[in-house]
Amino acid sequence: MPELVSPTSVLILWAVLGYLLGSIPFGILLSRAFGLGDLRKVGSGNIGATNVLRTGNKKAAAATLIFDGLKGAAAVLLARYFAAEDAAQLASLLAFIGHCFPVWLGFKGGKGVATFLGVLLALVWPVGLACCATWLVMAFWKRISSLAALAAAASSSFWAVLLTDGTAFFLCVALTVLVFIRHGGNIRRLFAGTEPRIGQK
User: Which residue of 59, 60, 110, 190 has the fewest C-beta atoms within 10 A of its own C-beta?
Assistant: First the structure.
């Protein structure tokens, strides 16, 4: 059974490393690698996979989705391997924050959905899988990425209680609040009926 408590210095270290991992702007790096230009000048200007998809390049969008998820998972798995479970949870939270507020981009990052899912898949995989399923069902039903993301985030705390011993419940609550904050504009457009659908530029 993994250790649960880490020294403060170790927690600080993994908070910093988690943030730095999460702050890698794969959307921008991959868009440039695929010759798509500056992603911040495309569509919503967001650096996530949904906005990469607005360039019309599905491979670049898929790669962004995967790598944004992997960086969240990497923060969790590395912290868990080299430290303890509390470090893994802290690193996961900071990886999400790093994606949303990367120092390299003037703290203007993405909305964190792929990183959110990657974090949960690595930290508590049953919850991660349930959230992915929630996202997929809502995305196929309504064809609105932001609505699917909000549904997945909102369900995460429920899944944490239903499928685990509740260890990650408070982390899921914190991540959900951050996801909703990052989607403030999307929520307003959803109520106004003007939110674009998946694939729409």
Answer: 59
Q: Which two three-digit tokens encode residue 149?
A: 């993301």
**What angle in degrees, to the nearest 10, is found between the helix axes of 85-100 and 169-182?**
0
Helix (H) or strand (E) holding 128: helix 125-142
Assess contact for 75 and 94: CB atoms under 8 A. Answer: yes
Q: Whole-angstrom Cα distance, residue 100 to residue 115?
A: 9
- Decide: helix, strand or coil at residue 48: coil
- Number of separate domains in the chain: 1
- The reply to whether 200 falls in a domain is no
Distance, CA of 155 to chain centre: 15
Per residue in 145-195, pLDDT tens?
A: 899 999 999 999 999 999 998 889 999 999 999 999 999 999 999 999 999
pLDDT along the chain (201 residues), means of 10: 72 97 96 90 84 89 96 97 94 97 93 96 97 96 94 97 92 97 95 83 56
Residue 132 lies in domain: 8-192
pTM: 0.92
The SS3 of residue 38 is coil
In this structure, is residue 52 part of a structural domain?
A: yes
